[in-house]
């Protein structure tokens, strides 16, 4: 299990288009053409899904929790100065959003989703049962691969604040990602005490530097 507190830029490698496509096909192996697909969002997918969906539900997932445990070398950082993004780590539970993708849009939607979520292959896509007010659904969720150098845990709040404030990637500043996620969860009446504590620390750090 990898839990290094410092990123290793020389170990980072992008997935090739062929590797990414193969990963997608593997995840969709059990999907039957004609069936809609549910996708579970817990981070940026809550506030910027970037795909068409026909239904959205608040969803509770058991067995995983939302954590800033993934080094981001592309979307919210660089190999030299990585940021951090959320992943589903083992243990606990997580409240998020589930989106229903119409069957005829599944192939194109999944291609775009894999380009966004799987640049380096640090996620393991899984079909997980989620509880909603309308019943239990099986949704595709991106969980962390603990056996990759991109996985990190045990960072102090001070270290988290420093990383989040400094990092910037192709999708913009890491701090924007964290604050937008926190705001979206708040608007959806989703409580995440760890994230709320980090947001307070980020605001305090910004005030101290005035």
Would you write up a description of this structure?
There is one protein chain. With 210 residues, the chain is an alpha+beta fold. It has a single domain, classed as Hypothetical upf0131 protein ytfp (Roll), CATH 3.10.490.10. It is 32% helix and 31% strand. It has six helices and seven strands, in the order αβαββαββαββαα. The protein has helices spanning 17-27, 44-47, 106-117, 157-166, 174-187, 193-208, and strands at 37-41, 55-72, 83-101, 123-132, 135-144, 168-169, 172-173. The strands form two sheets. A five-stranded mixed β-barrel has the order 1-3-2-4-5. Strands 6-7 form a two-stranded antiparallel sheet. α4 packs across α6. The longest helix has 16 residues, at 193-208. The termini are far apart. The model has no long low-confidence stretch (mean pLDDT 92).
């Amino acid at each position: 299990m990898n839990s290094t507190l410092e990123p290793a830029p020389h170990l980072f490698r992008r997935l090739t288009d062929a590797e990414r496509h193969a990963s997608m096909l593997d995840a969709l192996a059990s999907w039957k053409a004609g069936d809609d697909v549910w996708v579970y969002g817990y981070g940026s997918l809550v506030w910027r899904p970037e795909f068409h969906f026909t239904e959205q539900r608040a969803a509770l997932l058991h067995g995983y929790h939302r954590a800033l445990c993934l080094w981001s070398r592309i979307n919210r950082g660089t190999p030299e100065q990585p940021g951090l993004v959320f992943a589903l780590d083992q243990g606990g539970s997580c409240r998020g959003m589930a989106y229903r993708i119409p069957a005829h849009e599944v192939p194109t939607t999944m291609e775009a989703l894999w380009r966004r979520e799987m640049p380096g292959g640090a996620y393991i896509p899984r079909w997980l049962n989620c509880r909603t007010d309308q019943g239990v659904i099986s949704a595709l969720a991106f969980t962390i691969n603990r056996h990759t150098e991109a996985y990190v845990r045990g960072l102090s709040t001070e270290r988290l604040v420093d990383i989040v404030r400094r990092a910037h990637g192709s999708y913009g500043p890491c701090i924007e990602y964290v604050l937008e996620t926190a705001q979206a969860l708040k608007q959806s009446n989703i409580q995440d005490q760890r994230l709320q504590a980090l947001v307070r620390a980020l605001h305090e750090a910004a005030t101290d530097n005035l």
